[in-house]
Design brief:
heterodimer; A: mainly alpha; MetI-like fold; two-stranded parallel sheet; 22 helices; globular; B: Rossmann fold; 8 helices
Chain lengths: 556, 358
């Protein structure tokens, strides 16, 4: 499979950079270029939208909306990142380094909120805390109608919901940092005369900074990209504005211009996040042993348990119970053929996209392995940057060029052959699948590439000495070694696609409603109960990758 | 006799219900370098962590500069003990420069004093020019030296080192162990380190304690450990050689497969008693004129020497260290004689019984 010197002439013609020569462009690299182009294209389309300004509508938007959008986004990002850092770091410290009743249970169960899409948590919270919800009804019942209750449909409400939905990102990364070196660093500082408290703030916390920052940047990316939760709360951000510009004002170019503003924000985050990733590499992993934990005593033990339980309840247990209750209530009305059709659409899309994306990810991983040169590595990295692009941006950025190609073909047919062609590409699953491919490539690639690193060159050489080549090498050696990585990749992508809302909502062919789309429609009419059944289906499918993730971390 | 810096009095230590350190005692005087030597899992690192104050004590007392720092129910916080520690993985703070790492433990000093002190320490370990670098930018050996500088900077009463050389490659290990000894001696530091490598122990330490299964088998200097091991386990763990069975005869001589051996008298041996004698490879000398012949069983080429394993006519095995210009193949018979200065004798009936050497 692998050829250690892909460019036989590299030694003799050093003057010309390899990527300027024709031999450089073999099938592997061409494929990578195509995928990288699919990431670059929506970006360019969105940025180039300024060449063709949508005068009136943009003027209207910038006068009335833009300042609000920026202010809203600022508060959202500031609030959610502060909240997730506080929750994520404190919980990570407790479960990774301390010992208290229930620590083992909490260390995995605190990841469960990952299974709950933010928009599900959002509508359940509204349902619970709204004027007609159980909490306020109960309060009215006890204290009469004159009591004051904080408005859940507020900036603080959105921030709280997104914080509870997204803290696991910070928690997961920070726990990893603490687990591998927290206690040791604490001891080193103590041996140099620091009290444990001082050591925590002077050493452990600063040392974990790249991980905390990495998790927070992921959270910020998700908050910027979030469409479902903010639209349920009627909290206007760029994502909802893009949707409204397209489907309210029917102005694709205004949508693209709004998207370009969002891209600028995201770009700053991507650069910061890539830098953090490289800094995380400097520290090596080292597992802690049992005796190494800090034993909490007395009241602190129960405070720790109570704190972890409270967060888990608010972020996962209560919403789950409320969803189950609603689902049971409306089960007879909603559990119909119509519902199965939604499930079928979601499943079909999830499976198709997962197969497509993991297939391409596998090819990318092989390319990275065959050609470890700088230009190819760079291309593979670009091909994997789509995870940072918000779904709304991708929907706009991919719809525009595909529609343009479509119209070009239609025009061509008319002028050359006098044939009247219908739309060829619009109204098919193509746009959606391409957008998924860009957005979820990283999830699939990471898992497959991780497994690929275990297939070392010496394994290939050992297999070749045993007489295995080509397809037989692939089937008997590579695939079995890549199997668990591939399965992880398929699960992750499948669930991501099932939960995906904005791309599906904006680019689906007519009649292709999915569970996520149905939730959007029902919640925009305030029908919380009816949205519960599709939500709980998504939630259970979302538990899949968490189980995979946990089984993996147990093995490691 | 100097002042005792560290004194462990009959300490015991457990993880859960399992005893990992059993009734262990030792003392270190000012300026001495001690070493705990033993296979992994023998409890030596636990002793070190207990001295540092990271683990509570089950039994016994730990005195530091003649003050109690640990006893059951009391443990002075690590930060107050004035003990420096070099961790096995060095535990350098990745977010701080070398300068800040070394300066970390220096508090209550004026800024100018801090700078001078850090400089002095970095100079001592030969890294004065790299003060602005981060730990990931220097090599493993350099990290080790920074860890040493960081631990020594606050002038600790006692320096602890946990397997200080185990993460380094073999050639670097030897050079660095000499360097570390020089630094510690130049600094008149009192230090205790643990290792599983006896060459490191011999190269660095003044006193070595051999540990096995939580017990201290012997606490002595390298020469004593090698030539007068207290029991069979020390004899087999330290250095090479084999035990040769024999019977005590008149005149404190012992009859063995190598003939009658007489050395510095070994007391308490009654005639006709069955014993084992420790024969080191250098005790057996190759001599073609010798009437005693032995068959070569195995040959380990070591460059300057060859270590032969030989079978005597009695069937017993001994080892011989022979200059490598004499080359003999397995199966050949070679002449040998013995050069035993003193006899290390263990009673055959009781393997755990204590020494019989002078």
């Amino acid at each position: 499979m692998s050829n250690p010197l892909p460019n036989g002439t590299a030694l003799t013609t050093r003057a010309v950079p390899s990527f300027l020569r024709l031999q450089f462009y073999d099938g592997w690299r061409l494929m990578t270029i195509v995928v990288a182009a699919m990431v670059i294209t929506p970006l360019s389309v969105v940025l180039l939208s300024w060449l063709n300004p949508a005068g009136e509508i943009w003027g209207h938007l910038s006068e009335t909306l833009l300042a609000d959008l920026l202010i809203n986004t600022f508060w959202l990002v500031t609030g959610v990142s502060t909240g997730t850092v506080i929750l994520g770091v404190s919980l990570a410290w407790l479960t990774a380094v301390c010992d208290f009743p229930g620590r083992k249970f909490f260390s995995w169960s605190l990841l469960l909120p990952l299974a709950m899409p933010a928009y599900v948590l959002a509508f359940v919270s509204l349902g619970i805390f709204d004027f007609s919800g159980p909490v306020q009804s109960l309060l009215r019942h006890w204290f009469g109608s004159s009591h004051w209750f904080p408005d859940i449909r507020s900036t603080a409400g959105v921030i709280t919901v997104l914080t509870l939905a997204l803290y696991p990102y910070v928690y997961l990364l920070t726990r990893n940092a603490f687990q591998t070196q927290g206690k040791r660093m604490l001891e080193a500082a103590e041996s140099l005369g620091c009290s444990p408290r001082r050591a925590f703030f002077r050493v452990v916390l600063p040392m974990a900074r790249p991980w905390i920052a990495g998790g927070t940047l992921l959270v910020i990316m998700e908050s910027l990209a979030d469409f479902g939760a903010v639209s349920i709360f009627n909290y206007d951000t760029f994502t909802t504005a893009i949707y409204k510009a397209w489907f309210g004002f029917f102005s694709l170019s205004a949508a693209a211009q709004l998207a370009s503003c969002l891209i600028v924000l995201v770009f700053v985050i991507i650069v910061a996040e890539q830098r953090m990733r490289s800094r995380m590499r400097f520290s090596e992993a080292r597992q802690m042993t049992r005796g190494d934990r800090i034993q909490l005593h007395g009241l602190w033990r129960f405070l720790a348990t109570g704190y972890a339980l409270a967060i888990l309840s608010v972020a996962f247990i209560f919403p789950l119970l409320q969803l189950l209750y609603w689902s049971l209530e409306i089960f007879h009305e909603e559990f119909t053929v119509r519902y199965w059709q939604l499930v079928w659409h979601s499943l079909t899309l999830g499976v198709t996209a997962a197969l497509l994306i993991c297939g391409v990810a596998l090819l990318l991983a092989y390319t990275a392995r065959r050609h470890p040169d700088l230009p190819t590595t760079g291309l593979v990295r670009i091909a994997n940057l789509g995870y940072a692009l918000p779904g709304t941006v991708l929907a706009v950025g991919i719809f525009i060029p595909v529609a343009a190609i479509d119209n070009f073909i239609i025009d061509l047919g008319e002028t050359l052959f006098g044939v009247e062609l219908g739309q060829l590409l619009q109204g098919t699953l193509l746009i959606m699948l391409l957008a998924y491919l860009v957005r979820f490539m990283a999830a699939g690639f990471k898992a497959i590439d991780g497994a690929m690193h275990r297939v070392t060159p010496s394994i290939d050489e050992a297999a070749r000495l045993a007489g295995l080549r080509g397809l037989r090498l692939l089937v008997t050696v590579h695939l079995p070694m890549l199997r668990s990585g591939l399965l992880t990749a398929l699960t992750l992508v499948f669930v991501d696609v099932m939960k995906e809302m904005p791309i599906t909502l904006m680019t689906r062919p007519f009649g292709w409603d999915t569970l996520a789309v149905k939730i959007f429609e029902l919640t925009s009419e305030g029908e919380w109960e009816r949205a519960a059944l599709p939500a709980i289906t998504l939630l259970f499918s979302g538990l899949l990758p968490i189980v995979v993730l946990m089984r993996k971390s147990e093995r490691d | 006799m100097g002042r005792n810096v560290l004194e462990l009095k009959n300490i015991s230590q457990a993880y859960g219900r399992q005893l990992v350190v059993k009734n262990l005692s030792l003392t270190l005087e000012k300026g001495e370098i001690g070493c705990l030597l033993g296979a992994s899992g023998c409890g030596k690192t636990t002793v070190l962590r207990t001295i540092a104050g990271f683990e509570p004590l089950l039994q016994g007392e730990i005195h530091l500069n003649e003050k109690i720092v640990s006893q059951p129910g009391y443990s002075m916080p690590p930060a107050k003990r004035a003990i420096g520690m070099v961790f096995q993985d060095y535990a350098l703070f990745p977010h701080l420069t070398l300068f800040d790492n070394v300066a970390f433990g220096l508090r209550g000093l004026k800024k100018s004093e801090r700078i001078l002190r850090v400089n002095e320490m970095l100079e001592l370990v030969g890294l004065a020019h790299d003060y602005a670098k981060y730990p990931h930018e220097i090599s493993g050996g350099q990290q080790q030296r920074v860890a040493l500088a960081r631990a020594l900077a606050p002038k600790p009463a006692l320096l602890l080192m946990d397997e200080p050389f185990s993460n380094l490659d073999v050639t670097l290990r030897e050079r660095l162990s000499n360097e570390v000894r020089d630094i510690l001696k130049a600094y008149e530091a009192t230090a205790l380190f643990v290792t599983h490598n006896q060459h490191e122990a011999f190269a660095v330490a003044d006193r070595i304690g051999v540990m096995d299964d939580g017990n201290m088998l012997q606490w002595a200097n390298a020469h004593q450990l090698y030539h007068c091991p207290h029991n069979r386990r020390v004899a087999s763990f330290v250095g090479e050689g084999l035990l040769l069975p024999g019977v005590v005869r008149e005149g404190r001589r012992i009859e063995t497969g190598l003939g009658l051996l007489a050395g510095i008298p070994t007391c308490d041996c009654s005639p006709d008693q069955a014993v084992d004698i420790l024969i080191r490879p250098e005790d057996v000398i190759h001599d073609d004129d010798s009437p005693v012949k032995a068959e070569v069983i195995r040959r380990n080429f070591r460059g300057a020497n060859v270590l032969y394993t030989l079978r005597l006519s009695s069937g017993d095995l001994v080892q011989a260290l022979v200059p490598s210009h004499c080359d003999h193949a397995p199966g050949e018979h070679i002449g040998i004689k013995t050069d035993v200065r003193h006899l290390v004798v263990f009673d055959k009936r009781d393997p755990s019984e204590l020494p019989k050497t002078a």
